[in-house]
C-alpha cells in the first residue's frame, strides 16, 4: 500500500485557461479521500476515478475556489448509473447550511440527505479507511482547517489556504510531502495580512517544519509558477516543485 496524491485542481482564487481550482485526491490502498472541490476540478477528478469510489470529502473551508464543484459531485453521486450513494463531507461547522442555502428550497433536502456533513475543527482527528487525518488551524479570514494525513508510515501535509502561522508548521512537521499554498509573488507585495502565503513564505514554512519535499499549489493563474518556485527555493533546503492539474505523486 502506498500513499499517493493526485492534483485535480491547482489554481488559486480563480481557474486559469488550463487549471481548475483546488482539489486533491488522496489515496492509500482502496481508500479515496478528496480534499477540496474547487471550480472545474470535478472534470479532472473523473479522468481517473469513478465518483462512486470516493470514501469521503474534506472541505478545508467554504471559499468558492475550494467547494463549488461539490454541487456537481452531489449530482454525479445521486444519479450514478449504479444508484445513489451517500457521501461523508468533513467540513468546518456551518458549511452545510451555507452550501445548502445556495440551492432552491426544493433541492435542499436531497442535498442534505445524500451529503452527510460532519462538522470538524482544528484539533480533531478523523479516520477515513486507511488514512488518519489530523486537522490544524490555518490562518485565513474564514474558519479553515489544514490537514496532516498519515498512512503506511508516510505523511502528507496540506496547508489549505493560510497565511504563515505556527499550527500549519505543526501540521507539516517532518512530513514527507508538504502541499502548501503559495498564492502570491513576494515581489508584488505588500499583500493583505492573514490571508495567503507568497512563494517565499511557503518556503519559510517548509524550512521551519523540516519537510522532505515542498509542492506549491494555489498559485494565482496569472502569476508565473516558476517565479514562485524560485522564491520558495531561496527559503528552504527542501526540494521544491509546483503542482499542476493531473500531477500524481507518491508521498
Ligand atoms: Zn483559495
Ligand atoms: Zn480561501
Description:
With 251 residues, the protein is an alpha/beta fold. It is 25% helix and 29% strand. It has a single domain, classed as Metallo-beta-lactamase, Chain A (4-Layer Sandwich), CATH 3.60.15. A 7-stranded mixed beta sheet has the order 6-5-4-3-2-1-14. The chain has a 7-stranded mixed beta sheet with strand order 7-8-9-10-11-12-13. Strand 7 (125-128) and strand 8 form a beta hairpin. The model has no long low-confidence stretch (mean pLDDT 97). Residues 61, 63, 140, 161 line the site of one zinc ion. One zinc ion is lined by residues 12-13, 22, 63, 65-66, 161, 218.
Topology (SSEs and partners):
Layout: E1 3-9, E2 23-28, E3 31-35, H1 41-46, E4 56-58, H2 64-67, H3 70-78, E5 87-92, H4 95-100, H5 105-114, E6 115-120, E7 125-128, E8 131-137, E9 145-151, E10 154-158, H6 166-172, E11 177-181, H7 199-209, E12 213-217, H8 225-235, E13 240-242, E14 248-250
Bound molecules: zinc ion (2 copies).
One zinc ion (ZN) is lined by residues 61, 63, 140, 161.
- Give me the CATH architecture, please: 4-Layer Sandwich
Number of strands: 14
CATH topology title: Metallo-beta-lactamase, Chain A
Q: What's the number of structural domains?
A: 1
Task: Give the CATH H-level superfamily.
Answer: Ribonuclease Z/Hydroxyacylglutathione hydrolase-like
Amino acid at each position: 500500500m502506498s500513499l499517493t496524491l493526485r492534483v485535480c485542481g491547482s489554481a488559486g482564487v480563480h481557474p486559469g485557461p488550463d487549471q481548475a481550482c483546488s482539489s486533491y485526491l488522496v489515496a492509500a490502498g482502496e481508500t479515496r479521500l478528496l480534499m477540496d472541490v474547487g471550480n472545474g476540478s470535478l472534470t479532472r477528478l473523473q479522468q481517473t476515478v469513478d465518483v462512486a469510489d470516493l470514501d469521503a470529502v474534506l472541505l478545508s473551508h467554504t471559499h468558492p475556489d475550494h467547494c463549488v464543484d461539490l454541487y456537481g459531485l452531489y449530482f454525479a453521486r445521486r444519479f450514478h448509473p449504479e444508484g445513489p450513494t451517500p457521501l461523508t463531507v468533513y467540513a468546518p461547522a456551518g458549511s452545510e447550511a451555507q452550501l445548502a442555502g445556495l440551492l432552491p428550497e426544493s433541492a435542499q433536502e436531497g442535498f442534505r440527505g445524500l451529503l452527510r456533513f460532519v462538522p470538524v475543527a482544528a484539533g480533531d482527528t478523523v479516520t477515513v479507511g486507511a488514512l488518519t487525518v489530523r486537522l490544524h488551524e490555518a490562518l485565513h479570514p474564514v474558519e479553515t482547517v489544514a490537514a496532516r494525513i498519515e498512512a503506511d508510515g508516510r505523511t502528507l501535509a496540506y496547508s489549505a489556504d493560510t497565511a504563515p502561522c505556527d499550527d500549519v508548521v505543526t501540521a507539516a512537521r517532518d512530513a514527507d510531502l508538504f502541499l502548501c499554498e503559495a498564492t502570491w509573488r513576494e515581489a508584488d507585495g505588500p499583500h493583505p495580512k492573514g490571508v495567503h502565503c507568497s512563494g517565499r513564505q511557503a518556503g519559510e514554512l517548509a524550512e521551519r517544519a523540516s519537510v522532505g519535499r515542498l509542492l506549491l499549489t494555489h498559485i494565482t493563474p496569472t502569476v508565473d509558477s516558476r517565479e514562485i518556485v524560485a522564491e520558495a527555493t531561496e527559503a528552504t533546503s527542501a526540494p521544491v516543485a509546483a503542482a499542476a492539474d493531473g500531477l500524481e505523486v507518491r508521498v
